[in-house]
């Protein structure tokens, strides 16, 4: 069952490209989280999205938010992708797509992992969900608009 606006975001612990383990609960009570699911490292749409988050990273910091990218790619793939594009945020490896399934992120055409962004407030409640595979850059502005209204 998909997560909806108003639900408490399910906690998770996943490995990041820097070798740490990141848990959603690490930020509870402290910072809002932008959790964005994307299909695959170093593909055109995903690169546009990641670089757009990178280019707006200061704006996310100004509103006190943490940005976390999630795909099923390996830690090594995430390391290469983050280094190649100088990404200042963590990419999490969701081996087996377990977190994607927990959040109910749909597949497009039954095979392409979806591109969905969740804005989660400091208390862990989902405040906004944006789902668009083709409009990768819109995820950034949608997230910032919601964060500024919190």
Automatic annotation (TrEMBL):
Domain called Thioredoxin: residue spans: 3-150
As recorded in UniProt, its EC number(s) are 1.11.1.24
Localization: Thylakoid
Cellular component per GO, a single term = cytoplasm
Q: Which GO terms describe its molecular function?
A: thioredoxin peroxidase activity
Q: Which UniProt keywords apply?
A: Antioxidant, Disulfide bond, Oxidoreductase, Peroxidase, Redox-active center, Thylakoid, Transit peptide
Q: Which reaction does it catalyse?
A: a hydroperoxide + [thioredoxin]-dithiol = an alcohol + [thioredoxin]-disulfide + H2O
Q: Where is the active site?
A: 46 (cysteine sulfenic acid (-soh) intermediate)
Any Pfam family from its record, for instance, is: AhpC-TSA
Name the CDD domains for this protein: PRX_BCP (cd03017)
What GO terms in the biological process aspect are recorded for it? cell redox homeostasis; cellular response to oxidative stress
Q: Which InterPro entries match?
A: AhpC/TSA, Peroxiredoxin_AhpC-typ, Peroxiredoxin_BCP/PrxQ, Thioredoxin-like_sf, Thioredoxin_domain
Q: This protein's superkingdom? A: Bacteria
Q: Which family does it belong to?
A: Belongs to the peroxiredoxin family. BCP/PrxQ subfamily.
Q: Which PANTHER family match?
A: AHPC_TSA FAMILY PROTEIN, THIOREDOXIN-DEPENDENT PEROXIDE REDUCTASE
Question: What assembly does the database describe for this protein?
Answer: Monomer.
Give a short account of what the protein does.
Answer: Thiol-specific peroxidase that catalyzes the reduction of hydrogen peroxide and organic hydroperoxides to water and alcohols, respectively. Plays a role in cell protection against oxidative stress by detoxifying peroxides and as sensor of hydrogen peroxide-mediated signaling events.
The name of this protein is thioredoxin-dependent peroxiredoxin
Q: Which organism is it from?
A: Synechococcus elongatus (strain ATCC 33912 / PCC 7942 / FACHB-805)
**What is the phylogenetic placement of the source species in the record?**
Bacteria, Bacillati, Cyanobacteriota, Cyanophyceae, Synechococcales
């Amino acid at each position: 069952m998909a997560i909806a606006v108003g639900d408490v975001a399910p906690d998770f612990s996943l490995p990041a490209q820097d070798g740490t383990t990141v848990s959603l609960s690490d930020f509870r009570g402290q910072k809002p989280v932008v959790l964005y699911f994307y299909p695959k490292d170093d593909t055109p749409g995903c690169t546009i999205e990641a670089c757009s988050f990178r280019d707006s990273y200061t704006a996310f910091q100004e509103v006190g938010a943490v940005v976390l990218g999630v795909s099923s790619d390996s830690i090594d793939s995430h390391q290469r992708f983050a280094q190649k594009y100088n990404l200042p945020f963590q990419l999490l490896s969701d081996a087996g797509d377990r977190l994607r399934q927990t959040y109910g992120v749909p597949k497009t055409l039954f095979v392409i992992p979806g591109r969905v962004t969740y804005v989660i407030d400091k208390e862990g409640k989902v405040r906004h969900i944006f789902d668009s595979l083709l409009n990768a850059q819109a995820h950034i502005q949608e997230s910032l608009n919601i964060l500024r209204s919190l």
